[in-house]
Each structure stands twice: as structure tokens, then as C-alpha cells.
Amino acid sequence: MDRTVIAYVIYLLVSIALTIWVARTLSRNGRIFLADVLKGNEKLAEAVNHLLVVGFYLVNLGFVALYLSSDETIEDTRGIFEALSTKLGVVLLVLGVMHLGNVYVLNKIRRRGMLEREQVPPVAPHDWVGA
Q: How far apart are CA 30 and CA 34, in angstroms?
């Protein structure tokens, strides 16, 4: 079998496994975070969480597919490792940026929700204060 094809197969297997692992981690921990942001609305938190995970899969797997091809022919085993280290390194960086982006957006939503909760008075006013 051609070494370039071997590198492609290894790249796809590792990239897809990493994408699934990161997505599951984000989903599991993001569900709790979203429930807090959405004031305990579990159904809405689950729906938003699922939509975020689907978007994460689409972006990352699309990138993995686009980044698969290479103009270089791999001549030896060392070439396989070099090609894989470059491709997987870029995939890991993209996964990290996507993860940080998700955390940033969710934190912004959470802060906005906390500010909205602080602006609502705990009890309704009973009287007008004269000047």
C-alpha cells in the first residue's frame, strides 16, 4: 500500500477520534453550563447544547476533510510521521480554537444572564418616594 494512503488513513482515524472526544467533552460539561445560563430550562439547554455539538462536528470534520489532501508524496516511514505531525498539529490547534470560542461565547451569554438577573429588583416597589 502507498505510504501516502497509510498517512491519510491514520490522519482520518486520529482526527475523527479527537473531534468526537472533544465534542463529547464539550457536550457533557456544556449541558450543565447552559442549564445555568438558561435559568434552569433543561429542555432548552439540551436543545442548544445539541445544536452547538452539531455545529462543532460540521466545522471540525469539514476542516479535517479539506485538510486531508497533500501535494507531497511520502517516500518513507519518517515522511509519514512528519506529514502526520503537521496535519494533526493543525487539527489540534483548530479544535483548541473552536473549544476556546465555544467557552468564550457561553461565558458571554452567562454574564449577560447574570446582569439581567441583577437588574430585576427582588421585590416590587410599594410606594413612591416624594422629592
A: 6
